[in-house]
């Protein structure tokens, strides 16, 4: 017997999917409301995000410390694990714990030695600079006066402006800068919070180093449970690529900048010993630290570090500042052409244009940290976009070689082969219109 509802069901099946349309419309409306809410509550949302990261700061410190110390841990573990496994029943676990403790001890020892060597000299340099500011200002005024002695009117105007500027600088340094530094140093609550976060970060770094294999296995397990096998394998490959880019770039850049800082210090001390510079020897360490720290920033780092250092030396002697500029140029040529490529190689695969773009973009968003990690982060995003574009081109049967797209060529829609482009745009200028008319007349005569 025929079902009386069969006709109704068939007619209903032929109707559009109103439920799916309604859910789609509802999703669009909800998304628009969320976008409007985010735009109008951006300050509040940003405050919540900052509070969230402030709470997680010990974990961030710990992860960064563990990530930077991971090569040392791996080297120790490869050498100690076989020996511990042969001698003890739980040799692998003991080897992990011992390697984690030795790695953290090594990191803390390196930081402690650097602070012990650098901080006293930096304090001496800054104190000496502030104390000698009046003397250096007088030397500059005398140098400018001797330079402009043939133009008394210009000299008088310049010296009046210079006296006002130097008075403002001295007033700012004595009344604003020093009290602010004192307030910053006396911020007991902030200092205690930072020290507590660093202490907890050290403990977290110890756990991460000791249990990194377990954490990686758990993350891999969760990935395979949420995605298909093909998608999970692609995610694993992407994570390995990110680790390779970030690890190679950051550790290599830290090593490169440390070597450049040491070479800068040695070069400054040699110039002081040869009499090419008359500055106090404590300034050499201050300038070397500035050059080394700013060298962590790719591309712009040498210029960022050289500008304040040159101004600092110019206060003492313009001729010595010229010597320093020449020395920094030679040092950066050595770094850019010899030392940097040897240590970093082609860790990111980015051209100079995209390196500059990444530094400016992420530096504007994240400050100094963005200028440091912007290049490897952009390299990862760039590689992901490149793979996606190549995947779409392969699906359409098109070439993925960038060189094939150079020049005035188009792709034939039928054969997918590259052919020379035919200009079909109408003439714009009077000269082009006359030329087109002459060609058309010539074609008509030939016909």
TrEMBL record:
Keywords in alphabetical order: Cell membrane, Membrane, Transmembrane, Transmembrane helix, Transport
Membrane topology: Multi-pass membrane protein
Highest taxon in the source lineage: Bacteria
Residues that span the membrane, as ranges: 21-49, 55-77, 98-119, 184-209, 283-304, 311-332, 352-385
Localization annotation: Cell membrane
Region Disordered, annotated ranges: 422-447
Pfam annotation, one family: AI-2E_transport
GO cellular component: plasma membrane
Compositionally biased tracts (Basic and acidic residues): 438-447
GO BP field: transmembrane transport
Similarity comment: family membership: Belongs to the autoinducer-2 exporter (AI-2E) (TC 2.A.86) family.
Protein name stated in the entry: AI-2E family transporter
């Amino acid at each position: 017997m025929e079902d009386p509802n069969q006709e109704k069901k068939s007619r209903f099946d032929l109707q559009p999917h109103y439920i799916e349309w309604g859910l789609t419309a509802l999703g669009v409306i909800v998304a628009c409301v969320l976008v409007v809410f985010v735009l109008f509550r951006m300050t509040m949302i940003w405050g919540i995000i900052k509070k969230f990261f402030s709470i997680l700061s010990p974990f961030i410190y710990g992860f960064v410390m563990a990530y930077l110390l991971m090569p040392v841990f791996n080297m120790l573990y490869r050498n100690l694990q076989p020996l511990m496994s042969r001698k003890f029943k739980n040799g692998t676990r003991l080897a992990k714990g011992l390697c984690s403790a030795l790695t953290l001890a090594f990191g803390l020892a390196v930081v402690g030695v650097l602070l012990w060597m650098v901080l006293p000299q930096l304090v001496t340099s800054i104190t000496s600079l502030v104390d000698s500011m009046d003397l250096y200002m007088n030397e500059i005024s005398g140098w400018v006066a001797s330079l402009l002695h043939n133009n008394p009117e210009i000299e008088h105007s310049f010296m009046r402006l210079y006296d006002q500027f130097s008075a403002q600088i001295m007033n700012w340094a004595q009344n604003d800068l020093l009290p602010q530094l004192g307030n910053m140093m006396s911020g007991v609550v902030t200092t205690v919070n930072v020290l507590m976060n660093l202490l907890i970060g050290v403990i977290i770094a110890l756990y991460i180093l000791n249990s990194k294999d377990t954490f990686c296995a758990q993350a891999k397990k969760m990935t395979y449970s949420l995605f298909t096998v093909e998608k999970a394998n692609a995610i694993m490959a992407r994570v390995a690529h990110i680790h390779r880019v970030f690890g190679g770039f950051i550790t290599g850049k830290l090593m490169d900048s440390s070597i450049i800082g040491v070479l800068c210090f040695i070069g400054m001390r040699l110039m002081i010993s040869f009499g090419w510079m008359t500055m106090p020897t404590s300034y050499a360490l201050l300038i070397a630290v500035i050059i080394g720290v700013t060298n962590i920033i790719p591309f712009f780092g040498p210029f960022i570090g050289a500008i304040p250092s040159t101004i600092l030396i110019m206060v003492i002697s313009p001729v010595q500042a010229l010597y320093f500029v020449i020395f920094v140029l030679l040092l950066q040529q050595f770094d850019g052409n010899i030392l940097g490529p040897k240590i970093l190689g082609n860790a990111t695969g980015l051209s100079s244009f995209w390196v500059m773009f990444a530094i400016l973009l992420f530096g504007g968003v994240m400050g100094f940290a963005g200028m440091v990690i912007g290049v490897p982060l952009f390299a990862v995003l760039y590689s992901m976009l490149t793979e996606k574009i190549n995947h779409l081109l392969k699906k359409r049967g098109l070439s993925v070689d960038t060189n094939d797209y150079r020049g005035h060529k188009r792709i034939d829609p039928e054969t997918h082969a590259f052919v020379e482009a035919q200009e079909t745009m109408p003439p714009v200028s009077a000269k082009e219109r006359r030329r087109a008319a002459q060609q058309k007349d010539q074609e008509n005569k030939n016909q």
